[in-house]
Amino acid sequence: MKRRVETETIALSKKTKQDPIGEVDVSLTSEKPLTAVDMYLAAIEERDKKSLAQEDFDESTHSNIVIKLFEMALKQFETDQNEEEPYLNCLHDFGVLVRVPEYLHKAKEHLELLLNKRPKDAMLWSKLGLIKLDMSRLVFTEASDYEDDDSQYQTITSEQKQFVDEGMDAFRKSLMLAGDEETNKELNMIASKALLNLALAEKRNHIEPSHVIYTLKQALSFCADHTINDLQRLAGTVHYHIASVKSHSEKTLDLEEASSNCKSAIKYLETVLEGEPTSVDYQMLGQACILLSSLEMTDDDAAIEAFDKGTLALQNALHLDPENENIRQQLIDMDVSL
What we know:
The chain has 13 helices and 3 strands; from the N terminus they run βββααααααααααααα. It has 338 residues and is mainly α. Strands 1-2-3 form a 3-stranded antiparallel sheet, with helices on one face. Helix 2 runs antiparallel to helix 3 and helix 5 packs antiparallel against helix 6. The chain starts with a strand and ends in a 5-residue tail after the last helix.
């Protein structure tokens, strides 16, 4: 079956063979000769599709199409050798997509060659930090091996710890080289988001809680103490996730610290609401308040106040995003009238 999808510059023709192993043929056509960058952008566009509702293939076939497009782009990059940074980005993105360390190592090696030419390029150092964190993530054992026992955790390996530390060093180096306030903000956003995402991946894969908290605190070091709205949003989100991890502890000190982190999260997120809040902002505030209500063991009035504030925030989130079934179901589960 052959299907043609139009993009701004490329007519993307995808042919899928209906056979037991799901083989996929992909061809790209254009009015002008296609470069490696064209193919890479086509792969990114296909990867980032929000929905397959209008397509005539399933998720598995779609994944195979994306992989084929990346493979075609990488092959073309071997010919278009003047495209240094797009080639680096393609290697990195493909390595993350297929979870193959070889591509991330190639991306790192290529990046190090670029850094030899441009040692004061802050964005290149930031990119090195991202690659190092993704290399750490690929060392995880699949969570399915642990999901039957919540008390069984993976211990962080020395290799993973080294990747994270090297990534942190690269992020710090990038900030030292930042030339202006806008670049500084962008670099802090990149670092804190990357470390937050790494911590959430660690949590999903049952990495020991102490290391998840360590990674979250590293994320916090790049987004706390800023007056910039986007960084305050990140700081509130990170504080919430630290509280969430600590809330599962049986130690009194951990629970007290979880409560403190919740309050910090609420403070940051309420500041964000003074701007132009999104449904996600209200949802995160709601989650932080609900969690705080469960941690107020000795003050029933404070627990009720936090719970009420949380449900109101979730209702506001649903009002802004009425199609969000997760928020709707959470409110129903808490017996909150909609």
